[in-house]
Amino acid sequence: MLKGEADQSLFTVKASNGDDVDPKEAIFPILKHEGNGLIKFLGTGFFVTRLGFFVSAKHVFEDVLDSEGNVQGSLSIIQFSDNFKFYHRPVSGFVVHGDADVAVGVCAPMSHKVTGEPLFNKVLSLSMSIPTIGENVWTYAYPGTTVKQTENTEIKYNAKFYAGLVEEYHQNGRDSVFLPYPCFRTSIVLHCGSSGGPVFGENKKVIGINSTGFEGDADISYISRIQDTLYIGINNVVMPEETEPSVITLRDLIKINHVAI
């Protein structure tokens, strides 16, 4: 057990339709494929649309980008569903925020093998509310996930709830170098691999994204705002009833009810 793990029975996650959902169906590990069959676990992400748009932390993708911003290798996620099924789903692309530690990505679509109908994923609801100091918050993420590669690849996933309190809100950033963007300080313990996971407020909606923890299992962490994902432009998206691709933001998708808020 890692420090800070919460009693799993105390927390529930609701899908965008208000129903309780197994958190693994909406929150997932992100993997990098480095060539020669090598796989590296990068962090956590979560779905915000039924067809594979997701949110994570900007720094989760640092290992994928070279100094000029070009993608090195390929990415995928492991999408879990009921009955112990899982899908290895490629990431079509992602865009990172210029300042804040947030990113938006898109997974390749999935279709039913027989009917050809699109397969949907579970979606979390977002909240633009600023949590109050002292408010209970919690995350669900994949720290402790390990990749063992010999003749075969064995990945052990370790998804758990971690809980704490909001202790401070840095509206203009904590400092000018390490955390220059708006963020919350919380007492959630964030271990390596938690980055990019959703942070839930007392309304059980996502109010932030795991950004930074500290070595030594300290009860200090920093959480990015979900608001900072809204205007990240995603290229080559074909909207419903459209034929030409365009640049789309989560704000655009909220307006047509593709993102629950």
Give structural notes.
There is one protein chain. The chain contains 1 helix and 18 strands. The chain is mainly β and 261 residues long. The chain folds into 2 domains: 12-124 and 229-255, Thrombin, subunit H; 136-227, Trypsin-like serine proteases (Thrombin, subunit H). The strands form 5 sheets. Strands 3-4-5-8-7-6 form a 6-stranded antiparallel β-barrel. It starts with 12 loop residues before the first strand and ends in a 6-residue tail after the last helix. The mean pLDDT is 89.
Task: Provide keyphrases for this structure.
mainly beta, Thrombin, subunit H, globular, six-stranded antiparallel β-barrel, single chain
Query: What's the number of structural domains?
Result: 2
Query: What's the CATH class label of the largest domain?
Result: Mainly Beta
CATH homologous superfamily classification of the largest domain: Trypsin-like serine proteases
Q: What structural category characterises the helix and strand content?
A: mainly beta
How helix-rich are the residues, as a percent range?
under 10%
Give the low-pLDDT segments.
none
What is the average of the pLDDT values? 89
Return the string of H and E elements. Answer: EEEEEEEEEEEEEEEEEEH
- Apparent shape: globular
Q: How would a textbook summarize the main sheet?
A: 6 strands, antiparallel, barrel
CATH topology of the largest domain: Thrombin, subunit H
Residue fraction in strands: 35-45%
Radius of gyration: 18 Å
